[in-house]
Design brief:
Number of strands: 6
Distance between the termini: 93 Å
Strand order of the largest sheet: 1-2-3
Shape: elongated
Number of helices: 15
Helix content: 40-55%
Order of helices and strands: EEEHHHHHHHHHEEEHHHHHH
Radius of gyration: 28 Å
Structural class: mainly alpha
């Protein structure tokens, strides 16, 4: 007979032993519970003391048998699933957050309960793990982690949001391109365009994919995160047109834009799925820097031209060199218009297509 009433040791089918607990409390009979599985109790004595804690939780109106997720890793994964379901996060948001989380958080503090994460833990990540990254990257930490702490505070599981103790960096306005390079905007675009067909990927098998990806960035100036999520099903090769679905766009709306002739041969080789399946977010910046270098674009010391700068470059060339209406040029990049313009002015696809064709004709010279 067990020394502890209602507590027994049971040999399971797989040969392991579990501590089983059956009890009645506050006039309610609870079904037999596996305390080894639920709470890690290895002996009947441990289960007995755990049972007293369980009764205390019940007396407070709580369910002690609901397995709560307590570590930062658990809560991050839970938030990711919920945010995808309710549309708060889109797939490209998850890709970006996962990349950051896995690189800086998962192995450093991810295994800890939120109540055990200290200011010193966060300081160590900022000062050591992210010592040499840009402030915009450091701010990503707060965007990802702070809401998790805030949610647990709302639930009453936590009292202090330690993430609020970490500073948020004010981001400087990006320098104008003319303050970073000796080249004028049209020459930069032309040099990049001419350098793409000569770009050598680190892996030979990726050469055509990478060249086509870079060509899309240079010629369409669309966000590289959206380009990575395009599928061949989004492309209408007979019309040389892309319909970017709202699930991947920043504006959360579908929009259309033309496909450059230079990319069509590569797209015809894709049978289904992603058109750029091996291009990764983490490597894109350095890939573009190699393209800039091979194009012979001279920049001031310590200055860079990024993939996102293609959007500034295209707008500048369209408006200054081609005299295209500024709102139309802006619409080519799917920028969300505001105020009266947003309500009363809209361009047809043929207008956007014509603007792109003028732009491409100029940079191909």
């Amino acid at each position: 007979m067990s020394k502890y009433p209602g507590i027994t040791t049971k040999v399971m089918k797989n040969g392991t032993t579990s501590i089983m607990v059956s009890f009645k409390y506050l006039s309610k009979r609870y079904p037999t519970k596996n305390f080894t599985k639920l709470f890690g109790s290895k002996t009947e004595k441990q289960a007995y003391y755990r049972l007293q804690e369980v009764k205390l939780e019940i007396s407070k109106g709580r369910d002690p048998f609901t397995i709560t997720k307590e570590t930062l890793n658990d809560l991050y994964e839970e938030r990711k699933i919920t945010s995808l379901k309710n549309g708060t996060w889109r797939p490209r948001t998850v890709e970006s957050y996962d990349y950051f989380y896995n690189k800086y958080i998962r192995k450093t503090i991810g295994h800890k309960k939120l109540s055990k994460i200290t200011y010193e833990d966060l300081r160590k990540i900022y000062d050591i793990e992210m010592a040499h990254v840009e402030n915009s990257t450091k701010n990503q930490f707060k965007r990802i982690v702070r809401p998790i702490f805030a949610e647990e505070i709302k639930k009453g599981n936590l009292h202090t949001n330690v993430v609020d103790m970490i500073e948020t960096y004010n981001m400087p306005v990006r320098e104008k391109i003319e303050l970073r390079t000796f080249e004028n905007n049209l020459d930069i675009v032309r040099k990049l365009y001419n350098a793409v067909p000569k770009y050598e990927a680190l892996a030979y098998s990726q050469k055509e994919e990478m060249r086509s990806y870079l060509m899309m960035i240079v010629m369409t100036a669309h966000r590289h995160g959206e380009l990575r999520q395009l599928t061949i099903e989004d492309c209408y090769l007979d019309r040389k047109m892309v319909i970017a679905p709202k699930t991947i766009t920043k504006t959360k709306e579908d929009y259309r834009y033309p496909i450059p002739e230079e990319v069509i041969p590569y797209l015809k080789t894709i049978k289904s799925g992603l058109i750029f399946p091996t291009v990764k977010k983490g490597s894109m910046y350095q890939v573009f820097q190699r393209l800039v270098k091979s194009a012979g674009i001279e920049t001031f010391k310590g200055k860079r031209i990024s993939p996102h700068d293609m959007r500034r470059l295209m707008l500048s060339v369209m408006i200054k060199d081609l005299r295209i209406d500024s709102v139309l040029a802006d619409s080519c990049l799917n920028h969300k218009q505001r105020g009266v313009i947003n309500h009363y002015l809209s361009f047809e696809y043929k207008d956007i297509e014509e603007a792109y064709y003028k732009y491409w004709k100029l940079i191909r010279k």
